[in-house]
Amino acid sequence: MKHYEVEILDAKTREKLCFLDKVEPQATIAEIKNLFTKSHPQWYPARQSLRLDPKGKSLKDEDVLQKLPVGTTATLYFRDLGAQISWVTVFLTEYAGPLFIYLLFYFRVPFIYGHRYDFTSSRHTVVHLACICHSFHYVKRLLETLFVHRFSHGTMPLRNIFKNCTYYWGFAAWMAYYINHPLYTPPTYGAQQVKLALAIFVICQLGNFSIHMALRDLRPAGSKTRKIPYPTKNPFTWLFLLVSCPNYTYEVGSWIGFAIMTQCLPVALFSLVGFTQMTIWAKGKHCSYLKEFRDYPPLRMPIIPFLL
């Protein structure tokens, strides 16, 4: 059996970083990363991006050396992805922050609204309902992170946690300040507006959870298998007939419902920014589905049926 020689060069400087002799043909990129780490411990496998071209795409950990378009002497290019942190840690940090921050404003802890309002309660029912909905949303996210989601990648760059937390925590504080403010005024159309918005919020939360469960069932534990998601017997999953990422559709719907319920501008802006970002993610996933699966349902749109 012939063996491979693998040289790993810096993608920027072309400096030779490592030379691996007698590498098994069946060796995976993950195994090559482990071998590379032995000579460069500062670059643990999660930090490494190995590619065939300096400006090309990263090779997958499961790619096998002999199946790559390389000769018996393979040249791979290395890029440092930076310090990494697990997705679970990122999500728990992102979601625990808004839950805690919102409650600080809801209970009107000192130094927020003035001493005479310390630990007082709003007289408006919608304020208490908004707190319940907001808390439910983030508790749901925390539980899904721990018990539902299966991540295709184990880690993400550490710098992302600061960006993501600024977004989630900042918006949570901004909307909570106004919704729980002593001068807050209820929605224009009163109880009818609140009840309609609450119905939208609850339906979308149930829909979002249903999609997450359906996606979980597509990927066995410990696997990176990708399949086309299809509707199940659960009616909330029937949105798969029309969009590729109904979890994002339901997520946006939840925040639209919350914005209508509270009639609060910061919530509306949070919904708009979230919709913009989720549309970008949905388009990316939709394109990857089309490339990977030739029989992908042609009627589906990324996030909004028939439109977007």
Automatic annotation (TrEMBL):
Sequence ranges assigned to domain TECR-like N-terminal in this UniProt record: 5-80
E.C. code: 1.3.1.93
Pfam families (alphabetical): Steroid_dh (PF02544), TECR_N (PF21696)
Pathway assigned to this chain's UniProt record: Lipid metabolism; fatty acid biosynthesis
Membrane topology: Multi-pass membrane protein
Domain called 3-oxo-5-alpha-steroid 4-dehydrogenase C-terminal: residue spans: 155-308
UniProt keyword list: Endoplasmic reticulum, Fatty acid biosynthesis, Fatty acid metabolism, Lipid biosynthesis, Lipid metabolism, Membrane, NADP, Oxidoreductase, Transmembrane, Transmembrane helix
Keyword check for Nucleotide-binding: no
Stretches that traverse the bilayer: 85-107, 196-215, 256-275
PROSITE patterns, sorted: S5A_REDUCTASE
Location of this chain's protein in the cell: Endoplasmic reticulum membrane
Entry superkingdom: Eukaryota
Family that this chain belongs to: Belongs to the steroid 5-alpha reductase family.
Protein name: very-long-chain enoyl-CoA reductase
Source organism of the structure: Ceratotherium simum simum
Lineage: Eukaryota, Metazoa, Chordata, Craniata, Vertebrata
